Amino acid sequence: MSGSDRRLPEGRTAWRRTAVVAVPALAAVAAMGVVMAQGALAASFAVSGTNFQVLSGKLTSKGLASYVQTDRAVDGKGHPVALLGIGDATLSDICQSASVDTPLGKVTFRLTAGGDAGQVTADSLVIDGEDLVGDARFGTAQIGRDASTLDRVPDVKGEPGKFGLQAGDITVVGVRSHAWSATGGNFRLKGLKLAVGLDGKQCF
């Protein structure tokens, strides 16, 4: 009888066979976390078919620029988002999570950083979000400005004639967002923790 044909004792799991499926997925998300931390992701790419949660206790920035655009998946499906360009961002903590269907069931990818380990910082942070919830204070806000003339955050501009807004110093407490992508020139994630598990807990 081959090893693959042996019956497992009741209540035991075929961990070797499970690993064959789980390890490549874990390696991929771990690599993504490292690449994000090094700021190596391109500013434009095809998004996955799954959005993710972003949570932070407090976010501060020297500038904000925003306009509406459409993110595209590899199958061509579009996702309308508000592109939020945040210059020199500091976050008290951060949690990012996504729930993904796999052959093993629903798997949760969860990345956390900051908190007791120290603040999280990002240069030219760009979030393509479906929504944003929190208590906010904007300085010198300009709402309805042509998206092509935004200048608060470097390289964050939309198409001529499109609606845009921007502000100076901003503070948002209790940040919650569903997003399709997040990139940064340089992410500095103190106390980075990455976990992948079956039916794991998301950020909120």
Secondary structure blueprint with pairings:
Layout: H1 15-37, E1 52-61, E2 63-72, E3 78-87, E4 89-91, E5 93-102, E6 105-114, E7 120-123, E8 125-138, E9 142-146, E10 163-167, E11 170-183, E12 186-188, E13 193-198
Antiparallel strand pairs: 1-4, 1-5, 1-11, 2-3, 2-10, 3-8, 4-7, 5-6, 6-13, 7-12, 8-11, 9-10
Brief write-up:
With 204 residues, the protein is mainly β.
Write down the Rg: 20 Å
Report the major sheet: 13 strands, antiparallel
- Please estimate the helix content: 10-25%
- The CA-CA distance between the termini, in Å, is 48 Å
Supply the helix-strand structural class.
mainly beta
DSSP strand content: over 45%
User: In total, how many beta strands?
Assistant: 13
- Bulk shape: globular
So how many helices?
A: 1
Mean pLDDT across all residues, rounded? 81
Unreliable sequence segments:
13-43
Order of helices and strands: HEEEEEEEEEEEEE
Walkthrough of the structure:
The chain has 204 residues and is mostly beta strands. It has one helix spanning 15-37, and strands spanning 52-61, 63-72, 78-87, 89-91, 93-102, 105-114, 120-123, 125-138, 142-146, 163-167, 170-183, 186-188, 193-198. Strands 1, 2, 3, 4, 5, 6, 7, 8, 9, 10, 11, 12 and 13 form a 13-stranded antiparallel sheet that branches. A hairpin with a 2-residue loop joins strand 5 and strand 6. The longest helix is centred in the first third of the chain and has 23 residues, at 15-37. The N and C termini lie far apart (48 Å).
What characteristics describe this protein?
204 residues, mainly beta, 13-stranded antiparallel β-sheet, 13 strands, 51% strand
